[in-house]
Amino acid sequence: MAKRIAVLVSGGGTNLQALIDAQGRGEITGGRIEAVLSSSPDAYALERAKNAGIPGYVVNRADYDSNKAMTLALVEQLKELRIDLVVLAGFMTILTDEMVDAFPNAILNIHPALIPSFCGPGCYGLHVHEKALAYGVKLSGATVHFVSAECDGGPIVLQKAVEVLPDDTPEVLQRRIMEQCEWKLLPQAVSLFCQDRLRVEGRTVRIL
Ligand code: GAR
After folding, report:
1. Given ligand 1 and candidates 178, 186, 190, which is best to mutate, with the most ligand atoms within 8 Å of its CB?
2. What is the pLDDT of residues 127-153, one digit of tens each?
3. Strands 3-9, 139-146: parallel, antiparallel or unpaired by DSSP?
């Protein structure tokens, strides 16, 4: 049975688009994107879902008092949709433990840096690249990891690096990392999960 995938988004949704395109090319083996859930009603990612014929749902952060209350609403919706794999693709709310408990080793996140660098609370989106440039690193990249109770701290599935160039701005570096790392790694990791080829052994993910 194909695994039922939900993609959680908050913004532009280029990583969602990479997943949709990979699915269109037949590269998500053993899984299908069944739903897109957005933390904001204005996210352009919802347009992308609509254009691809994928049902979109809004679980608006602004409607909830806390991250925990929002997480519980998301879990309920995901369970109702009988989701097997939750993919955080530019999802900007920190989920609470209830999500990890409901989907143990079944939530993947894409982070735009080489974890454990430039990650954790407050390190998201363009801020990540601002911090990498301010630090002066010569390499940065992206990481796909399983989501655990610790923000950006779960077992690493895939990583890819690119060079940081002398005249990079945060926007230029972000674009290079998206094009060369994120849009490739995320569909690969999702496809591996859907083929039951990811085995978590402590902090290590073995690719079968
Ligand atoms: C991506 O670069 C993603 O890695 C990052 O936000 C961007 C979303 O872009 N995610 C995080 O920083 C999570 N900590 P997108 O909406 O175009 O996919």
Report:
1. 178
2. 999 999 999 999 999 999 999 999 999
3. unpaired
Q: Catalytic residue positions?
A: 111
Q: What is the mean pLDDT of the chain?
A: 97
With vertex at residue 113, the alpha carbon angle to CA 176 and CA 55, rounded to the nearest 5 degrees, is 80
Q: Which of 95, 59, 53 has its CA nearest to residue 80?
A: 59
pLDDT in tens, 20-42: 999 999 999 999 999 999 999 99
Given a contact cutoff of 8 angstroms between Cβ atoms, the answer to whether 106 and 85 are in contact is: yes
Question: Is 131 in a helix, a strand, or coil?
Answer: helix
Q: Beta partners for 207?
A: 198
Cβ-proximal residues to 80 (8 Å cutoff; 6+ apart), any chain? none
Which pLDDT band holds residue 193 (cuts at 50, 70, 90)?
very high
The answer to whether 86 and 78 have CB atoms below 8 angstroms apart is yes
Residue 82 Cα, ligand 1 centroid: separation in angstroms? 25
Q: How far, in Å, from the CA of 91 to the mean position of ligand 1?
A: 7
